[in-house]
Amino acid sequence: MPISLFFPVDAVYAAAHAIHNIIQDECGTDPFYFCDELKPAPLGPQLLKYLRNVSFIGRQGTEIRFNADGDAFGSYNIYQYQRHPDGKYDYIQIGTWKEMLEMNLSKLQWKDVDDTPKSVCSDPCPSGHIKNYQDQCCWVCVSCREDAYVYNDTCRSCSPGYGPNANKTGCVKIKALILEWLNPWVLVPVVFSSIGILSTLFTIAVFIRYNKTPVIMASGRELCYVLLCGVLCCYSMSFVILAKPSVETCAVMRVGLGLCLSVCYSAIFTKTNRISRIFNRGVKTIKRPIYTSPISQVVIALGIVSIQLIGGIVWLVIERPDIREIYPYPLTAVLTCRVSTFSLVMSLVYNMILIIMCTWYAFKTRKIPENFNEAKYIGFTMYSTCIVWLAFLPIYFGTNNDYTIQIVSMCMCLNISATVALGCLFTPKVYLVLFQPYKNVRQGNGCQIGGADRNRPAYSMRFTGPKSQTMQSVTSNSKSSPRLGPKHANGDPSNVRNPSVVESSVS
């Protein structure tokens, strides 16, 4: 029978099976007959219901059945027209379709190729890409942003602090970054601070060892020790700033950052203010200015520092220290202290005022007697400090999105400020005490330095002639300076003048 007749035959058999099933259900099977209930013929709706439920094997050996819509389930054989080895051509079955496709790819033959050629309009998109349809069936794969994931063939951005997972199907928490101690950005300020701490401790040791010598006494020992403590704190603050943020380190940084600077500049301010008052007063009268004794100077400096300390403590009470994460870039989280830029600036305003006042007094005292070298060193220190801070401010506030540069620039600003003070104000004294001891003598002291300097004449310290008597009269009660020479038998002081107590340096 031709294949074209299989379908009409199967249709007749389907109707026959449906009628057979109706007779069985309505009339029974013993005996099987067409009963009066179905005469003259089964109703159409009833026959259609049974027809949709028939199931039998058709003429082609396939199952014949229908779905709820009355359509027959497809059953197809798939053939390929192939050439046989003997040169003849024929159809070869390579697969079937019975509710799903089944292919025997080993039977397929392709011209000039061994692999099965692709028959698709577009390849599936890789992870992290979405389909941008060009028509109903074809598309172009478009990559999502680095901080986005794929959801229902659309790109969705992750929340701050989160990033897409490896498959770009969801978001995961990003690990917050902190500055590692072996980071090259961190090593530079750490090494700088370590060298500065060792240098400061060495300077303190030299001052303690030669505490009673003229050069150290004439430099205002008490304020020098206050200033050295401030320099040491500035160097030490780098380790606090670079440490992993915590509530404790954040509290220390907020108080210590302004406090260490105020210790340095309060000492310099007190020193320059004293110099200015003494020399300005000495021109008009020989009466001693008030609050020029060493103890008074220390009390004034500590009073200036206490203002910064009280402000820092009040700030801690109002805004409790804490840590937070900031997100300067996508997929970047940085752990830092919770402090606003405005609050940080306000904590440094007091020190900015001190720096300006110190610079002003250093400028005012620039024309004091030539042999008063320390005033010039103070002036150079403050001019350099102003340059450092003028460079720091735009760097810090101009790099809001680069946490590393901000932190490192703050550490280097503290280190350089401390180094300028240490180098300009203390290096000349330490050098003189250690390498030029023959200059570290009182005026008129005839004692010679042993060793190779035995034949060297005693060094005489130079002072201003016309005003030295005024300077001695207004500062004669200071404990930080050598006293006047011995008196003669008649009670008059010796003609040999001793060094002035106004923080003189040896020229």
TrEMBL record:
Residues 185-443 form the G-protein coupled receptors family 3 profile domain. Keywords: Cell membrane, G-protein coupled receptor, Glycoprotein, Membrane, Receptor, Transducer, Transmembrane, Transmembrane helix. One of its GO terms (cellular component) is plasma membrane. It is a multi-pass membrane protein. Residues 466-481, 492-507 have a biased composition (Polar residues). SUPFAM superfamilies: Periplasmic binding protein-like I (SSF53822). Residues 461-507 are annotated as: Disordered. GO terms for molecular function: G protein-coupled receptor activity. The chain crosses the membrane at residues 185-211, 223-245, 251-269, 290-318, 338-363, 375-397, 403-426. The keyword Transport does not apply. It is found in: Cell membrane. Signal peptide: none annotated. CDD domains: 7tmC_mGluRs_group2_3. It comes from the Eukaryota. The keyword Cytoplasm does not apply. Pfam families: 7tm_3 (PF00003), ANF_receptor (PF01094). PROSITE patterns: G_PROTEIN_RECEP_F3_3, G_PROTEIN_RECEP_F3_4. Belongs to the G-protein coupled receptor 3 family. PANTHER family: METABOTROPIC GLUTAMATE RECEPTOR (PTHR24060). This is G-protein coupled receptors family 3 profile domain-containing protein. The lineage of its organism: Eukaryota, Metazoa, Ecdysozoa, Arthropoda, Hexapoda.
